[in-house]
Amino acid sequence: MSRFHRYNPLTGLKDLRSFLGTRQKHELVFAFLAVVVTVTIIAGFYLDSGDLKKPWQRDVQYVESWPLNRTDAEIVAAQKTDAKNRAIREAAEKKRQEENRRSLKKIDDALTRWGF
Predict the structure, then answer these.
(1) CA angle, corner 43, sides to 38 and 47, nearest 5?
(2) pTM (2 decimals)?
(3) Of the candidates 56, 40, 58, 60, the residue with the CA atom closest to the CA atom of residue 48
(4) How many Å apart are CA 113 and CA 62, to the nearest integer?
(5) CA distance from start to end of the chain
(6) In this structure, are residues 20 and 28 in contact, taking their beta carbons and an 8 Å threshold?
(7) Are 10 and 18 in contact (CB under 8 A)?
(8) Largest CA distance in the chain
(9) 36, 46, 64, 70: least surrounded by Cβ within 10 Å?
(10) Tens place of pLDDT for every residue, the chain, 116 residues?
(11) CA-based nearest residue to 16, from 36, 31, 1
(12) From CA 36, how far away is CA 30, in angstroms rounded?
């Protein structure tokens, strides 16, 4: 600790003030802007890192178990119900994509009107 007895925060502030006093105005403005940009970027990364701390969630995947002795009629009936369910899912997905496409088209048209 005897090494640090010469280092004083007030002495450091006086030295910084004398250094900044010899600088021209535009140098101080650009130094301030550089500090602001750097702090903004670091703060953005810090705030965005909160998404990485999501709690662990169990990922359960369900599979269907079929008996080995099921008949062809049961297989065909299951395929028909699966086809209906798949068609419903695909229709819902297509509807969602179309809504998304419409909203993005609206934004694109607005940006085009503004010249972007």
Answers:
(1) 155
(2) 0.41
(3) 40
(4) 49
(5) 61
(6) yes
(7) no
(8) 93
(9) 64
(10) 566 667 788 888 999 899 989 999 999 999 999 999 999 999 999 988 877 777 788 888 888 888 889 999 999 999 999 999 999 999 999 999 999 999 999 999 999 999 88
(11) 31
(12) 10
Tallying the residues shown for the chain, one arrives at 116
Alpha carbons 96 and 98: distance in angstroms, whole number: 5
Place of tokens 């810090």: 46
Amino acid letter, 86: R
Q: Cα separation of 73 and 92, whole Å? A: 29
Q: How is residue 71 written in tokens? A: 């008949």
Q: Give pLDDT, residue 57.
A: 84
What pLDDT does 3 receive? 67
